[in-house]
Structures are given as C-alpha cells and as structure tokens.
Amino acid sequence: MRVLVTGCAGFIGSHLLDRLLAREAVEVIGWDPDVARIAHLRDHPRLAFRQQRLGQGDTLPALEADMRRCDWVVNLSAICNPSLYNTEALRTIHVNLFEAYPVIEMAARLGRRLVHFSTSEVYGRTLASYLGSRAGDDPDLYMLDAETTPMIMGPIHNQRWSYATAKQMIERLIYAHHVEQGLPFAVVRPFNFFGPRMDYLPGIEAEGVPRVLPMFLSAMLRGQPMQLVDGGHARRTITSIHDAIDALMAILDRPEASLGHFYNIGNPENEVSMRDLAHAMRRAFVRVTGQPRFADHPIVEVTSQDFYGAGYEDSDRRIMDIGKEAARLGWRPTRDLDSLLDETVAWYWERYGDGA
Ligand code: UGA
C-alpha cells in the first residue's frame, strides 16, 4: 500500500506515520512544512518526506506526481485551533477550504481513494442547546449521527464558525465529487483526540493559545491556574489518539466496507465537561508524579470574551452514537479517560516535569 499524507507532521499525522511505517508493506509520501514531530522518522527508508506546505508557490504539479504514485490520499492538512477561527478567519477559511480543495479535485480526477479529515465541529451546536430547558433530556436533540444530524451554526459575526463552515463546504464538495464522478472517499470527524505531541505547550514550546489539553498541561507544569472558559460547562468526548489511529487503519484495511461514508471517530464513554476534565487532570498528575500537591492545583474561571476575544461561540456538547462506525470498521475505542490522561501526562512529565 502506498499512502500520500498531507499534514503528515501534525499531531494526528505523526501518530499515523508511526503506525503506517511499522508495517513492512506500506510506503508513505508525506507533505508538511514542519518536521519536528516526525524527526524520528525523517530517514525512514519507506518515507519520502516533502518539507512543503500545500498551496505554497507552484506546488500542485509536484503534488500530482506524488498522488499518481499512491493508492490512498489521507488529507490532514488544516488549521484546527479555535483561538484562530475568530481572530484569523480569512486564513482559517483559506487553508481549510481553498488550499484543501485542489487535493480533493485531484483525487477525484485521478480516481484515488481519499480519507479526508474534517471535524466534529461541523455539527456546530446541538438542537438541545437552542431549545434550552424545553429540550428536556431527549437524546434525539443532542446525539450526533454522521448521516442524519443537521448542522447548526451561529450568526456570521460569530466568526468561531469560520472553520466549521469551511470544513462543511469541503465535505459537501467531496460528496458531490463522489456522486457525480465516483470519488472513493471516507470523511473522518474527530472527537477531541488527546495524546502526546498535541499542538504545542504555550509558554514552554511556543507562544499562543492552543487547544484545551496543552493549555491545561502547560498550566499544571508551570504552576499556573487552569482556566475554565465560561464556567467550563462545555462537554466533549475525549478520545485516545491510539484508538483514533486504530479506526483510521481499519478504514484503510477495509475499503469495500469503509469507502463512501462519513465517520464520527471518538469515544462516547469518555464524555466530560471541561470543569470535570480539569479535575481529572489534577488527579492524573498526582497519580503519574506521586506528588499530592497537584490535587489542589488552582482552577479559575475566565469569560470567552477575555480568553478568545470577540466572535467566539462554543459547541455545547459533542456526543455521538458510534454503532454504524463500529459495524463498518470492526472497531471500538478501548482507552478510558484516566488511562489516556495518565499516558499523556507521563509523556509530558518525562520531558518537562521537575528535574527533566
Ligand atoms: C477543536 C477544533 O475546533 C475541532 O475541529 C476539533 O475537532 C477539536 O478541537 C478536537 O480536538 O477534536 P474544541 O473542542 O472546541 O474544537 O477545542 P478546544 O480548544 O480543545 O476547546 C475545548 C473546550 O475547552 C471549549 O469549550 C473551550 O472553550 C474550553 N477551554 C479551552 C477551556 O475551558 N480552557 C482552555 O484553556 C482552553
């Protein structure tokens, strides 16, 4: 199997490459402007690495030459950091829609199998969040189904949705290419994958506001408070990166069953509010380091206006039924929240903890 991976040195890409290259029969061509997360693979004999950004200069002929040599295209290249959606909406839309589209069009024209990474954020907010107390506890109003749930996003001036709408448009283009030209595709909607090498640790590895896992990790490591945006009531289903890569490998291994579908990839057993996640993080630090001081690590509240600036609006909840995914892929996530946090905290503690 030959696989072209765009965004191969991102968080997901780096774990995917580890798994793909562990198989003797797989060759990978990887595109990414950065190399840090795959430095350990850089000289791998079955990896051809192009240190190149999509849409940079006149890269399309080189991309096409690479795609012609591959059976699969895994398109991971994206901006997926919520602090940029409202502050850099133009760049967010450009990268996630206009730079992504040539890859899709090319895969359709060449008849290559495409696995495109979208987002659980395409659903926007749940119906239940708009109905408020009138919604009661009706699962039909919040359980997300990859083929039937509508997508509900806030008004245009809430630029948080620049990303989700760009991703939705790409999904619609992929589906149109499938219906009209037979593009063989699978669309993956990740539900908060957690694990080593995610984003960057702010104040340690780089400056900025990454996603919640590195924000909380950095706060714990630097002795600063974990910040709960708008009270930490938003809920997410946390998924081990290893369970996620298992699902991806199943997609690649079973094309007859997997192609032509949209996938919610996540672990519904691991649903938590961000407040609960902060408490779980404290407990993981105590377990991993053996230091009781982490049990009382400070947690503060901050408004989304102060944290992200104007134009932020949150997805209230992301929980799904994965029955169809499990049946098609022969896959089920197995890592619970505590075990995946322990693994992740241990990895960062070894690099950045006391005395590291
Ligand atoms: C992001 C991306 O937009 C999605 O495309 C992607 O699928 C998802 O990450 C993911 O990792 O799968 P989101 O879950 O909103 O979506 O990203 P986070 O920045 O990790 O935020 C999660 C929640 O934590 C939000 O409610 C946010 O307001 C909150 N948060 C974030 C905090 O309470 N404190 C922080 O320090 C950071």
Structure characterization notes:
The chain has helices at residues 11-21, 60-68, 82-85, 89-98, 101-110, 127-131, 161-181, 212-222, 241-253, 255-258, 274-289, 304-308, 323-329, 337-352, and strands spanning 2-6, 27-32, 47-51, 72-75, 113-117, 143-144, 185-190, 193-194, 226-229, 235-237, 239-240, 261-265, 271-273, 299-302, 319-320. By secondary structure, the protein is of the alpha/beta class. Strands 3-2-1-4-5-7-12 form a seven-stranded parallel sheet, with helices on both faces. Helix 1 (11-21) packs across helix 9 (241-253), helix 4 (89-98) packs parallel to helix 7 (161-181) and helix 8 (212-222) crosses helix 11. The chain is globular. Uridine-5'-diphosphate-glucuronic acid (UGA) binds at residues 80, 82, 119-121, 163, 190-193, 211-212, 215, 227-229, 232, 234, 236, 274, 314-315.
